[in-house]
Specification:
It holds the Pfam family Rad52_Rad22. Keywords: DNA damage, DNA recombination, DNA repair. Belongs to the RAD52 family. With 274 residues, the chain is an alpha+beta fold. It has two domains: 45-178, Enolase-like, domain 1 (2-Layer Sandwich), CATH 3.30.390.80; 190-270, no CATH class. 32% of the residues lie in helices and 31% in strands. It has helices at 29-39, 64-75, 136-157, 170-178, 204-214, 216-220, 249-254, 256-267, and strands spanning 4-9, 12-20, 49-52, 58-61, 80-96, 102-116, 121-133, 190-191, 224-230, 235-241. Strands 5-6-7 form a three-stranded antiparallel β-sheet. Strand 5 and strand 6 form a beta hairpin. Helix 2 packs parallel to helix 3. The longest helix is centred in the middle third of the chain and has 22 residues, at 136-157.
Length: 274
């Protein structure tokens, strides 16, 4: 049984409504499936950074801001939260600098918990190191910030490949090293009345190209195109204005941001059904 707070307005009990607490608000079934599908995606090369590591090895990582951006994209800006469970300063060292002024090095460790709106969570630890800083305060502050960022990234990667877990897959790292770009996978879509390879389940890039190519005239007139979104339990029909995917189809298909937005617009068809 879900727990709810009863909140009344203006003291009128008849106007009271139920407000779900964060962590007790379940995602709709269709959206849960969509989130699970997105989390299974491997990180594309465009999202991955590298830096020199020990022994001349190149280390692959996901930047902190990008991890947050991807979490907002997958879960929704109000679909997740993070909290710092612990934050400790491990050590601070003072050493003489080249100009005679002291330089400070600090190391910190943190534990961060990431919680989704339905209550599921992951928790992980991270560390931060600040070297050669001009003041003790700057060294401590930088080390703590890096520790929290590292812990948050490590907690997020536990949710799936799309949030960094794929960077622990050696085979995927080999593929990234060999290829200049990675294809994006997304929920399959079908334009009603426009066959897409004779199957309702098709490659999303081909689907987007097909929709944009076949509806450019309709889009210019503001026509609404009916799109069919299939789930494992049933099929629902809703309307989507094709202006969201209009424009130059080849350019749209090559632009990952435009492609993802258009596919998200189509995938939103089933979000309200549970």
């Amino acid at each position: 049984m879900e727990k709810r707070d009863h909140v009344s307005f203006d003291g009128n009990a008849e106007e009271a409504r139920e407000v779900l607490k964060f962590g007790e608000d379940l995602f709709p079934v269709a959206k849960r499936r969509r989130i699970a599908s997105r989390l299974r995606e491997q990180l594309p090369r465009s999202d991955v950074c590298t830096r020199p590591g020990p022994g001349g090895v190149r280390l692959t990582y996901l930047e902190g801001w990008r991890a947050v951006d991807k979490a907002n994209d997958i879960f929704g800006f109000n679909g997740w939260s993070c909290s710092v469970s612990s934050l400790e300063l491990d050590f601070v060292e003072e050493k003489p600098g080249g100009n005679g002024r002291p330089r400070f090095t600090a190391c910190a460790s943190a534990v961060v918990r990431v919680t989704l709106r339905d209550g599921s969570f992951h928790e992980d630890s991270g560390s931060g190191l600040a070297e050669g800083m001009p003041s003790k305060g700057e060294a401590i502050g930088k080390a703590k910030k890096e520790a929290v960022t590292d812990a948050r990234k490590r907690a997020l990667k536990n949710f799936g490949n799309a949030l960094g877990n794929s960077l622990y897959d050696r085979e995927h790292l080999k593929r990234l090293a060999k290829s200049k770009c990675e294809a994006i996978t997304a929920p399959a879509v079908k334009a009603e009345g426009f066959p897409l390879g004779g199957s309702k389940d098709c490659d999303p890039r081909r689907a987007l190209n097909d929709v944009t190519n076949r509806t450019s005239t309709m889009a210019s007139k503001g026509t609404t195109l009916r799109i069919q979104a299939s789930t494992t339990t049933r099929t629902e029909l809703r309307s989507v204005n094709v202006t969201s995917v209009q424009g130059n189809p080849p350019a749209a298909a090559k632009d990952d941001t435009v492609l993802r937005q258009a596919l998200d617009d189509l995938a939103h068809l089933a979000d309200d059904f549970d």
